[in-house]
Amino acid sequence: MRNCKIKIGLLTLLVVPTLLCANEAFEVAGQIVAESSWFESEEGESTNDQAIRRARIGIKGKPTSELKYEIEYSFTGNNDWKDVYLQYEFAPDFFVKAGNIKEPIGLEALSTSKVNTFMERSLSHAFLNKRKLGVQMHRYIKSDDHRYTLTAGAFGKSLDNVIDNEEDGTSVVGRATYAYMPKKNRLLHLGLATAYTEYDEQTIKLNTTPESDLFDRKLISTKIKNVEESQHVGLEGAVIWDNLSLQGEYMNMGIQNDDSSYDFNGWYLQASWFITGESRGYKAKKATLSRVKPKNPITEGGLGAWEVAMRMSYLDIDDKDEEESKETDYTVGLNWYATSNFRMMANYVRAELTEPDLDSEDIVQVRVQYDF
User: Fold this and answer.
1) What span, in angstroms and rounded, lies between the C-alpha atoms of 202 and 205?
2) What are the backbone angles phi and psi of residue 113, rounded to the nearest 5°?
């Protein structure tokens, strides 16, 4: 009850001043995502489930040309508070951002779930932290057809962990990207990110569902006690060539506790093609992917945008040698973008473990997504 009152109080404290300031830019935003999934194991056991995957509400705006804010609350998932931040542009294309935000690592992770090609992020996302309270500096540089970003930040607990009085590590994170954009809908993106996190002898759990949030168990998992520090290294790349796109990332995570060191890694490769001729969007200032804009949305009597995609994703958390903890997922997706903010998705996922005598899983899932 106490935590609930704290959350309601914080939400009121953040929202009311904005409503009272008539001169401030103010916009209500939110999203609702509903999905169904069907699962079948190698033994032929079948199950299914349905749920509201995301239900979020928030406010955002730019009170001045230099100042931007966002406050987003989630009614689903393990984290109540999403983006809660202030951003100030104290020089042209030079930003400072403070609040509950994502650590700047990973193209797929930093791109909003509203625009990602598949229903769930890849297996390597298991290495990354959720949003945390912190401050970061971001620099964007444009030179002819070339775009550069440099981002560095320091982070502590998440806002949820502060409210719930839970432990977390403190991190220093940096990301650098380069993009070559010779013409519209043509892009080469490259990026490198690294993070160092210090812990007070905490326990770290690494696990993930096979790219399906409704799947009721983890196929692979590991737990390390008395962790003192960890390091992340991430490599990212993407190519957009009109209606074709390629994307991939590699993640490595090293963990040290009081008597051992562990080394884990994961990666994914994916490709997508728009049957109807659209192209994936890209935000050069943030070095992230952005919305798809259908050429013929249904609001104008068209058929919307249709996209087919494939992905191979791999995760290795087997360094402890306790049990087999390597997984490979193969995903095929079909997306229909009725408008730029309404889409339907269908994914088939084949999840395979390294050991042939361990279970594999077949997953079919569909989603309806709307945001405003």
Assistant:
1) 10
2) -60, -20
